[in-house]
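Fold Annotation — chain and its backbone

Encoding — discrete vocabulary of local shapes
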Amino acid sequence: MKYAYPIVVVAACLASLGIAVAQDLPQAVTDLRLTDIQIREKPRAEYGRNVHGTLPGGSRVEIDLDRNGVIKEIESRGDRLFPVATIKSLIPAPVTKNASWPADARLEKIEFESAGRIEIEGRLSDGRKFDAEFAADGLMIDFDTDS
């Protein structure tokens, strides 16, 4: 019993650190509802930072932020791909409305390129590997699958 109070104090301190870390993240990252968040600065601050966390559903991801806190890339960690639905808030509506947008796919990686282009890699619902690229206006630029 004499150790109960210090354990509670340490736990409360650790919890408050987690809240402070989450508050330091851009809204786009916060909206992903990550848990188990770890923030790692890149070797040079002007290159941004990496955020590691777990998406709802249990997929571990690494989010690459540029120096302005803009998401450049989200990549799965380990062998668990993440459902497209978990990052839908980041995708422009014209892209998700394209008939070729793989809404039921599981992603290994999504990259947000210049001029709003989006590149994705993962597996389609039938298990085939794919990679695709879309313009911000929804135009499909490229879509390749492993047959």
About this structure: Confidence is low (pLDDT under 50) at residues 8-21.
